[in-house]
Design brief:
By secondary structure, the protein is of the alpha/beta class. The chain has 14 helices and 9 strands. It has a single domain, classed as TIM Barrel (Alpha-Beta Barrel), CATH 3.20.20. Strand 5, helix 10 and strand 6 form a beta-alpha-beta unit. Helix 7 crosses helix 9, helix 8 crosses helix 9 and helix 13 packs across helix 14. It starts with 16 loop residues before the first helix and ends with a helix. The N terminus is likely disordered. The protein binds coproporphyrinogen I. The site of coproporphyrinogen I (1CP) has 20 residues, from strand 3.
Length: 350
């Protein structure tokens, strides 16, 4: 019998540039990935998705695996993000909703009363076996490249349930929050349980890091954020604890950044409206940052993009760690060759 020693493996995502940056260490190069890197900007994605609707795709492990791997192969990004959607766990517990092409999530019967909570039971791992299967297959296929798991945060999920679909003003959501704070709290408690379990399923299956998307919470003033939202997001982030690094992201959240970081993040996501320099100052230099190239700038001439990428990488050096990303998701018409060039440029800057 030979004594077994742990081989020094290069196949360990915990030693990746992404994880190092999230832990506040200095990797050899700035890691880079893109929100919505899988999706309509890729012709190979459009081909694969033909004839399968979004939610069906999300529940088919072979498709999820292939779609998740496409941008990693094509762009050489430093992370994969699971191909899924924030409403997948809501659908899994039985909420009647669909993802309508060109629109987004649409809920058949929007939530308005306490009785509606009966339509939102707790999530268990048995509700989402296809997530466990897809994450397991991905971790095996990705080797040293980390897989990022994700969930929607309670506020953003509640907004879809209460508005019934995408919303600009979130008026019904705000009306419930202020008009029936108890119902709001009960709804967000359930959503926090669902979000925490959805993340835990992905962590248990091998995800190396997670991102909590509170995409639309920038619609709130700080006092409302602290009173009505932060405790629920904190519950989700604290449930992850130190199992894997946690990214917390929202759009237009410059005024909430310090609170969102302190809610239990290791990495604070920064949208394109705030410079990384300001983001570092607002979070007292205590958190790694992720961001923040404006996705619309990818349509500008290359020298403009190059200049901005260089500035962002430079600004990121003031943070304890920096993960290069866009300030929000890749726009569907983006030329994917530009994304590849951005990855090459970020890596070349060390
Ligand atoms: O038919 C299609 O191709 C549907 C388009 C699409 C895709 C590709 C939707 C509908 N969701 C997704 C995938 C998706 N959603 C990912 C994949 C992983 C990756 O990044 O590559 C992720 C992380 C999400 C998460 C998501 N869904 C968020 C948070 C991220 C963000 O962009 O802020 C949100 C807000 C949603 C809701 C949603 N799902 C789909 C759309 C078009 C929307 C937004 C609708 C709106 O404007 O409110």
């Amino acid at each position: 019998m030979t004594t077994s020693t742990t081989p020094a493996t290069t196949d360990d995502p915990s030693q990746s540039a992404l994880l190092q940056a999230a832990r506040g260490q200095r990797p050899r190069h700035t890691p880079v990935w893109f929100m919505r890197q899988a999706g309509r900007s890729l012709p190979e994605y459009r081909e694969l998705r033909q004839g399968t609707n979004m939610l069906e795709s999300c529940a088919t492990p072979d498709l999820v695996t292939e779609i998740t791997l496409q941008p990693v192969r094509r762009h050489g990004v430093d992370a994969a993000i699971l191909f899924s959607d924030i409403v997948v766990p809501l659908k899994a517990v039985g909420v009647d909703l669909d993802i309508v092409a060109g629109v987004g999530p649409v809920v058949a019967e929007p939530f308005a009363t306490r009785a509606d909570l009966d339509r939102l039971p707790d999530l268990t791992p048995e509700h989402v076996p296809y997530i466990t299967e897809a994450v397991g297959a991905l971790v095996a296929a990705l080797g040293p490249t980390p897989l990022i798991g994700f969930s929607g945060a309670p506020f953003t999920l509640a907004s879809y349930l209460v508005e019934g679909g995408p919303s600009k003003n979130h008026q019904r959501t705000k009306a419930m929050m202020h008009g029936d704070p108890e119902l709001w709290r009960a709804l967000c408690d359930r959503l926090a349980q669902i979000a925490a379990t959805f993340l835990q399923v992905q962590i248990d299956a091998g995800a190396s890091m997670v991102q909590l998307f509170d995409s639309w919470v920038g619609a709130l003033p700080r006092t409302d954020y602290l009173r009505f939202v932060e405790p629920h997001s904190r519950a989700v982030l604290e449930s992850v604890g130190d199992q894997v690094p946690r990214i917390h992201f929202g759009v237009g959240t410059g005024e909430l950044l310090a609170d969102m970081a302190a809610a239990g993040a290791d990495v604070i996501g920064v949208d394109y409206r705030l410079s990384l320099t300001d983001a570092v100052a607002r979070t007292d230099g205590k958190y790694a940052v992720q961001g923040n190239l404006d996705p619309a700038l990818l349509f500008a001439p290359w020298p403009v993009i190059e200049g901005r990428v260089r500035e962002i990488v430079q600004e990121g050096r003031a943070a304890p760690g920096h993960i290069f990303n866009l300030g929000h998701g890749v726009l569907p018409d983006t030329d994917p060759t530009v994304l590849t060039r951005v990855v090459e440029l970020v890596h070349s800057l060390g």
